[in-house]
Amino acid sequence: MEALDGPVVLDPEIQTNPNLRINAQCMPGKKGGVTVLAMNASRDEEQAVFILVTGQQYTRTAAGLSSTEVELNGKVLTARPGGTLPVFNGEHVGAGVVHPGSGEHYLCHAACGG
Fold it and tell me: What's this model's pTM, rounded to 2 decimal places?
Protein backbone atom coordinates (compact mmCIF):
# COMPACT_ATOMS: atom_id res chain seq x y z
CA MET A 1 0.00 0.00 0.00
CA GLU A 2 3.04 2.22 -0.48
CA ALA A 3 1.14 4.20 -3.13
CA LEU A 4 -1.00 5.65 -0.33
CA ASP A 5 1.86 6.65 1.98
CA GLY A 6 4.18 9.55 1.30
CA PRO A 7 7.66 10.10 2.78
CA VAL A 8 6.50 12.57 5.46
CA VAL A 9 5.34 10.91 8.70
CA LEU A 10 2.87 12.85 10.85
CA ASP A 11 1.99 12.68 14.54
CA PRO A 12 -1.68 11.61 14.68
CA GLU A 13 -1.89 12.91 18.29
CA ILE A 14 -4.23 10.08 19.23
CA GLN A 15 -4.32 8.28 22.54
CA THR A 16 -5.06 4.65 21.79
CA ASN A 17 -5.52 1.41 23.61
CA PRO A 18 -2.99 -1.43 23.29
CA ASN A 19 -5.03 -3.12 20.52
CA LEU A 20 -5.19 -0.09 18.22
CA ARG A 21 -2.20 1.33 16.36
CA ILE A 22 -2.53 4.62 14.44
CA ASN A 23 -0.01 5.98 11.91
CA ALA A 24 -0.41 9.04 9.68
CA GLN A 25 1.53 10.16 6.59
CA CYS A 26 1.16 12.79 3.91
CA MET A 27 -0.45 11.42 0.74
CA PRO A 28 1.93 11.47 -2.23
CA GLY A 29 0.85 13.95 -4.91
CA LYS A 30 -2.04 15.42 -2.87
CA LYS A 31 -1.26 18.77 -1.24
CA GLY A 32 -2.90 18.67 2.19
CA GLY A 33 -3.80 14.99 1.80
CA VAL A 34 -3.34 12.59 4.70
CA THR A 35 -3.38 8.79 4.90
CA VAL A 36 -4.25 7.35 8.30
CA LEU A 37 -3.43 3.70 8.93
CA ALA A 38 -5.50 2.11 11.71
CA MET A 39 -4.35 -1.38 12.68
CA ASN A 40 -6.54 -3.40 15.02
CA ALA A 41 -4.42 -6.00 16.80
CA SER A 42 -7.44 -7.70 18.38
CA ARG A 43 -9.15 -10.51 16.49
CA ASP A 44 -12.06 -10.40 18.96
CA GLU A 45 -12.96 -6.72 19.35
CA GLU A 46 -13.65 -3.90 16.94
CA GLN A 47 -12.05 -0.55 17.78
CA ALA A 48 -13.61 2.90 17.32
CA VAL A 49 -11.81 5.61 15.33
CA PHE A 50 -13.44 9.03 14.81
CA ILE A 51 -12.59 10.79 11.56
CA LEU A 52 -13.42 14.42 10.84
CA VAL A 53 -13.62 14.43 7.03
CA THR A 54 -14.79 12.14 4.24
CA GLY A 55 -12.32 10.05 2.32
CA GLN A 56 -11.52 6.67 0.82
CA GLN A 57 -11.05 3.49 2.85
CA TYR A 58 -8.83 0.60 1.84
CA THR A 59 -9.12 -2.43 4.15
CA ARG A 60 -6.50 -5.18 3.82
CA THR A 61 -7.25 -8.49 5.55
CA ALA A 62 -6.28 -12.16 5.46
CA ALA A 63 -7.85 -15.27 6.97
CA GLY A 64 -4.75 -15.85 9.11
CA LEU A 65 -1.02 -15.25 9.40
CA SER A 66 -0.23 -18.21 7.14
CA SER A 67 -2.92 -17.42 4.57
CA THR A 68 -1.85 -17.36 0.92
CA GLU A 69 -4.62 -14.90 -0.01
CA VAL A 70 -4.97 -11.24 0.90
CA GLU A 71 -8.20 -9.31 0.46
CA LEU A 72 -8.65 -5.61 -0.24
CA ASN A 73 -12.09 -4.30 0.69
CA GLY A 74 -13.40 -7.88 0.78
CA LYS A 75 -12.03 -8.96 -2.63
CA VAL A 76 -9.07 -11.31 -3.09
CA LEU A 77 -6.07 -9.49 -4.58
CA THR A 78 -4.76 -11.22 -7.70
CA ALA A 79 -1.67 -10.19 -9.63
CA ARG A 80 -2.18 -9.06 -13.21
CA PRO A 81 -0.23 -10.61 -16.09
CA GLY A 82 3.47 -9.94 -15.57
CA GLY A 83 3.02 -9.93 -11.80
CA THR A 84 1.95 -6.31 -11.45
CA LEU A 85 -0.63 -5.30 -8.86
CA PRO A 86 -4.20 -4.45 -9.81
CA VAL A 87 -5.58 -0.93 -9.51
CA PHE A 88 -6.67 -0.25 -5.95
CA ASN A 89 -10.17 1.16 -5.59
CA GLY A 90 -11.15 2.61 -2.24
CA GLU A 91 -14.58 2.68 -0.67
CA HIS A 92 -16.14 6.01 0.26
CA VAL A 93 -16.15 6.66 4.00
CA GLY A 94 -17.96 9.59 5.59
CA ALA A 95 -16.93 11.62 8.58
CA GLY A 96 -17.78 9.94 11.87
CA VAL A 97 -16.88 6.75 13.67
CA VAL A 98 -15.15 3.92 11.82
CA HIS A 99 -14.96 0.50 13.50
CA PRO A 100 -11.98 -1.35 12.09
CA GLY A 101 -12.15 -5.11 12.58
CA SER A 102 -8.91 -7.08 12.50
CA GLY A 103 -6.62 -6.07 9.67
CA GLU A 104 -5.15 -2.87 8.25
CA HIS A 105 -7.43 0.05 7.44
CA TYR A 106 -6.07 2.89 5.31
CA LEU A 107 -8.25 6.01 5.55
CA CYS A 108 -7.23 8.49 2.84
CA HIS A 109 -8.32 12.12 3.05
CA ALA A 110 -7.36 14.21 0.03
CA ALA A 111 -7.97 17.63 1.60
CA CYS A 112 -7.14 17.91 5.28
CA GLY A 113 -5.55 21.33 5.11
CA GLY A 114 -2.33 22.85 3.86
Answer: 0.74
